[in-house]
Write a structure and sequence with these properties.
This protein has 297 residues and is of the alpha/beta class. The chain contains eight helices and twelve strands.
Length: 297
Amino acid sequence: MNLFNGIEAFIQVAEKGSFVAAARQLKLSPSAVSKLVTRTEDALGTVLFNRNTRSLSLTPESQLFLKRGRVILSEMAAARADIAAAADTPHGQLKISMPNITAFFLPLIGGFQEAYPEIDLELDFSDRIVDVIDEGFDVVFRVGQLADSRLTSRQIARISMQLVASPEYVAKHGLPDSVASLAYHHCIQYRYPTTGRLEAWPAPDEYTGNLNFSKRLVCNNADARLGLALQGRGIALMPDLLAAPYLATGALVTVLGDIVQKEYQLRLLWPPTSMPCPDCGSSLTISTASFPDSHDT
């Protein structure tokens, strides 16, 4: 199944309030729309609608997915428009460097390949800061402020960072009641590959203490930190784009949610002029610096 068709069907049903109205908008039969939504639920491993004979409502998981689905379809539509303007049939090579957060990016890559089967992709999943121009990347997704003045950028979303832990961890160790009490908990920390420093956790402006956490678990991969948190190994600072589905199902809970949190911009960056594709003459390439390294100073 083309997951993008399923996402579009889900969004139409959510916005129109019925499968019949969505089918009319999509020029499909209601049964075809229902099958697309069901297959999307199977692909995501969750239920998107509460269904009965009289009403249709969104589940907590689908309310989160609706926001992300709109962003995905919007960006894919923009990508299609840009590439269509460059060539009737885009082809050639697209070089991409992305943060090592495969759980988020792989579905997007799969959808892109389905939409543009004649484009060859070279993928660089890395948590290092790439040199977009010198290393030959054309586009970068980066969290944080733009550091390279040679690049053009556009904000495409905002990402919220928050502390999370599993219910099993909370049952065993309890919840910290203050920033200072984090010192007595198992903290899953991130080490920047470029500088070797540990990621700083956000603290309220009025907090003046020394944030001194345990180093029982330190790693350099967001997917690994998420997995360790789900296993009940400790408290982790995670972006909502990874944690949201698990928070919705109760597999994770927020920690000090009103005290420790921070937002970053998710930006799309590209060189003002890039090497043209040798086959079609269009300029194609995507690179994304890591979420943590984007803030590293």
